[in-house]
Amino acid sequence: MGGGHHDTLLKDPAIEEWVWMRQNTHRYFKVNRRTAPTLIAMGLVVPAITFYFASATQGLTTIEPKTKKAWAEAYAERK
User: Fold this and answer.
1) pLDDT tens, residue order, the chain (79 aa)
2) Which residues have C-beta within 8 Å of that of residue 28, sequence separation ≥ 6?
3) Is the dihedral of CA 37, 43, 44, 50 positive or negative?
4) Annotated domain spans of the chain
5) CA dihedral 39, 43, 45, 50 (to 10 degrees)
6) pTM of structure
7) Which residues of 7-21 are buried (b: 16+ CB within 10 A; e: fewer)?
8) Residue 7: partners with Cβ closer than 8 Å, 6 or more residues away
9) Which residues touch 65 (CB under 8 Å, ≥6 apart)?
10) CA gap 29, 43 in Å, rounded
């Protein structure tokens, strides 16, 4: 910054290759014994646990406005 024409960006080939591989992971991904447990956990177990806790806690809390009237009723009375 501020060095005039002497500001050049040096590119490391190893970093450039890592960035390219990271952006193109879909080309090299394969389902095998190593990746299958992660796929099952993220695709089935995590959603199942989330659904279980969501359904188990449904209806346990009530969300009510702090005012006695809803904001729409209060707005209608002002007019």
Assistant:
1) 555 566 678 899 999 999 999 999 889 889 999 999 999 999 999 999 999 999 999 888 877 766 666 777 777 777 6
2) 21
3) positive
4) 12-59
5) 150
6) 0.50
7) eeeeeeeeeeeeeee
8) 1
9) 71
10) 16
